[in-house]
């Protein structure tokens, strides 16, 4: 019997939002997963209605940040497939960068409180280990293109990560000069 077959599978989005000073919006989570850690906004796809990753990213951006966006405001820059995350489930996360900037910090909500942080400040925040090793590394290296990672998280100290695909740069830069 393979114990990984008995774990639930979740599909989610993470949305990287910035303010006018190019600081990232992060949520300090009040509940699992990643309780007590800082992470980009996002959430699970509503599979009962056939919600797409773009629809989910738009919905979560409206619900959590109060920002109404369109598909054109989003750049899908990657995905991360995490097997056996915290021994409880498998995740497939679609990672989006939002072209629209936030004007103000969203109000605190039941899920947690918000803060704006520079990329350097994020390096010293308590963030999920897999976000540090997978999500933020994808952003740092491929935010102008696209990349996909697969990670076996069964042993967090010896996580096996495989890059499945990458496009180094899009023909049109995400943030034009």
From TrEMBL:
<comment type="similarity">
    <text>Belongs to the Nudix hydrolase family.</text>
</comment>
<dbReference type="GO" id="GO:0046872">
    <property type="term" value="F:metal ion binding"/>
</dbReference>
<dbReference type="GO" id="GO:0016818">
    <property type="term" value="F:hydrolase activity, acting on acid anhydrides, in phosphorus-containing anhydrides"/>
</dbReference>
<keyword id="KW-0460">Magnesium</keyword>
<dbReference type="InterPro" id="IPR000086">
    <property type="entry name" value="NUDIX_hydrolase_dom"/>
</dbReference>
<dbReference type="GO" id="GO:0005737">
    <property type="term" value="C:cytoplasm"/>
</dbReference>
<feature type="domain" description="Nudix hydrolase">
    <location>
        <begin position="8"/>
        <end position="139"/>
    </location>
</feature>
<keyword id="KW-0378">Hydrolase</keyword>
<keyword id="KW-0479">Metal-binding</keyword>
<dbReference type="Pfam" id="PF00293">
    <property type="entry name" value="NUDIX"/>
</dbReference>
<dbReference type="InterPro" id="IPR015797">
    <property type="entry name" value="NUDIX_hydrolase-like_dom_sf"/>
</dbReference>
<protein>
    <submittedName>
        <fullName>NUDIX domain-containing protein</fullName>
    </submittedName>
</protein>
């Amino acid at each position: 019997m393979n114990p990984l077959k008995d774990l639930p599978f979740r599909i989610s989005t993470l949305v990287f939002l910035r303010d006018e000073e190019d600081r990232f919006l992060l949520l300090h989570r009040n509940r699992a997963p990643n309780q007590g850690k800082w992470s980009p906004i996002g959430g699970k796809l509503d599979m009962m209605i056939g919600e797409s990753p773009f629809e989910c990213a738009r919905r979560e951006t409206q619900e959590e940040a109060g920002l109404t966006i369109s598909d054109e405001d989003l750049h899908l820059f990657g995905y991360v497939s995490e097997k056996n995350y915290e021994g409880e489930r498998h995740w497939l996360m679609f990672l989006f960068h939002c072209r629209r900037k936030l004007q103000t910090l969203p109000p605190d909500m039941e899920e947690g409180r918000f803060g704006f942080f520079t990329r350097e400040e994020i390096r010293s925040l308590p963030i999920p280990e897999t976000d540090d090793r997978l999500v933020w590394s994808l952003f740092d290296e491929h935010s102008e293109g696209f990349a996909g990672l697969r990670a076996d998280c069964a042993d967090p100290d010896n996580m096996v990560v495989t890059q499945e695909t990458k496009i180094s740069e899009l023909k049109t830069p995400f943030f034009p000069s």
